[in-house]
Structure formats: structure tokens, C-alpha cells
């Protein structure tokens, strides 16, 4: 992972403050916390940021650019990321130590990474961040459950045919 300087610009800090995980933290406090914890990494268009074979146990926060989460070598797009979006949240404290998608830059990107140790320090120093993190994970679980429902829902046509066959 290519690393750059650690300081965030005012604009980048504003983006971080809009992310659901950091939203309720005062900007000056967030600047103080992130200044010592964040690792900035640039990525070029089409470069793989994370994949099942290449990832670190860190969450990523997009400060610029766009990217996609994909499966099956790009044939299935699961999510699109823009500045202010984050990824790796569910994997950070997972026991599986496995990353399940590929994150690919769709334009040049700058990503701020935070390690698990960094997040634990942030949780201790600013407890609201831990509550925000839990709420963010819960919203992702609901989102994924809705997706599963969409993929596994029986169509009305199929359902009707099954019923008709059942009465014959």
C-alpha cells in the first residue's frame, strides 16, 4: 500500500465528518483524533484497492474519487463508493480474516485508512464513535438482508404456478 503524509486538508476533514461513523464528533476534535491515526494512500484509476487476496485489516474512507465493490471479476457490482464513503467496516473486527469483495478504483482516489487499533483508541477517546460504528454496521446488516430478500424472493408468476401445481 502506497502511503503519503498523514495530515488531512480542511475539505477532507469535512468529508470525514459527514461519514456516519464520525458524524457527531466536533470538527476540531475529529481533526485532533484523525491527525495521529490516519494513513493516506492514493490509488490510480482501475487499480485494485482491496481484494480477497490483497487487503489489510483497516477501514478505508474515500477522500476523493470513486470506486466500486465487485464480485466475479467485475461482472457483479455490489456498491459504488464516492468521497465520504467507507469500506472494510465489517471486516475490521471479524474473526474470519477474509475480505469477500474486490474494491476497484473507477477514477484516481485518495483513501484514508484506519487500523483496528486506531479505531479502538478512537472508541475509547470518543465513545460516540463506537455507537456510530455499531449503528453503521446495523444499517449495513439491514441493507444486506433486503438484498438477500430481493435475490431470494419468489416471483408472483412462479408462486402462482407452484400453487396451481399444488392443487392438481
State the gist of this model.
The chain is an alpha+beta fold. The chain contains six helices and eight strands, in the order ααββββββαββααα. It has a four-stranded antiparallel beta sheet. Strands 2-7-4-5 form a four-stranded antiparallel beta sheet, with no helix packed on it.
Task: List its salient traits.
8 strands, 4-stranded antiparallel β-sheet, 23% strand, 168 residues, alpha+beta, 43% helix, single chain
Care to describe what's here?
The structure is a single chain. This protein is α+β, with helices and mostly antiparallel strands and 168 residues long. It has helices at 10-18, 27-37, 89-92, 116-125, 127-152, 156-167, and strands spanning 39-43, 48-50, 58-64, 67-71, 76-81, 86-87, 102-105, 109-115. A hairpin with a 4-residue loop joins strand 4 (67-71) and strand 5 (76-81). The protein is globular.
